[in-house]
Structure formats: C-alpha cells, structure tokens
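Input record, target 12 of the design panel.
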C-alpha cells in the first residue's frame, strides 16, 4: 500500500470534513454533536500525517505496513463513528469509538517499531547519541 499517497488523500478528506463541519453542520447540530465533529476532524488530520510517516518509514527500510493498517483502521473507526453520531446516527456507535482509539494507539506503537527498524538499518537518523569510540 502506498501509505504516503493514502495519507495525503486522508488529509484532504480531513480538511474537507472539517470545513463541512464548520459551515454546514454548525447551524443544525447540537453543541455535543459539534464537539464530536471537531474531535473527529482533529484526530482524522493527525492520523493522516501519521499515515504519511508510515509511508516514509516503509520507504526508508522500516516496517511501516502494519502501522499504516492500524492507523487507517483506527482512524476510520474512531473518526467515522464520531462523524456519524454528529450527523444523528445511533449513540450506541459510541461503543465502537474506543476500538478505533485502540487501533490508533497500536498504529503509533507500530510506527515507533518501524522507526527503530529504519534507524537500525541506517535509513534514518536515530535520535540516540552515538556511542563514543573505544580506544
């Protein structure tokens, strides 16, 4: 999967959904529904950037594939259920939202693992200081 491209498209959708919420939903939704929409759009955009990062790590010799799937699935479930509830879907969907959050957290852990693998392969710089040379 091309996670960089998908992340860019996911970001495009996040901006579009955010704008829709700010202009179309704002006049018809309750305060609670607007809060759900804002949270969904915020997490949607954050995880779009994470998908781009997963693609870059995958291309840099990392293991970004699992991270990409977890981030995408988690984002769809988390933001998707919040968007749906804001538009009037049944509130029982709120029970699904935390499953999406767990997927997102798994995605971030997978990104950390992918970055570690890419750094070990020398594909990206590690944040850890280099060990002093032994004499």
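The sequence produced for target 12 reads:
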């Amino acid at each position: 999967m091309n996670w960089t491209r998908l992340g860019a498209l996911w970001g495009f959708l996040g901006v579009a959904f955010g704008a829709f919420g700010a202009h179309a939903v704002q006049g018809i939704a309750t305060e609670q529904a607007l809060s759900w929409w804002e949270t969904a759009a915020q997490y949607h955009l954050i995880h779009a950037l994470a998908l781009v990062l997963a693609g870059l790590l995958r291309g840099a010799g990392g293991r970004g594939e699992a991270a990409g799937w977890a981030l995408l699935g988690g984002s769809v479930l988390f933001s998707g259920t919040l968007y749906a509830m804001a538009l009037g879907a049944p509130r029982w969907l709120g029970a699904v939202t935390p499953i999406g959050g767990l997927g997102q957290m798994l995605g971030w852990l997978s990104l950390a693992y992918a970055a570690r693998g890419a750094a070990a392969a020398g594909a990206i710089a590690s944040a850890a200081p280099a060990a002093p040379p032994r004499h």
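Residues 3-120 form a domain with the Four Helix Bundle (Hemerythrin (Met), subunit A) fold (CATH 1.20.120).
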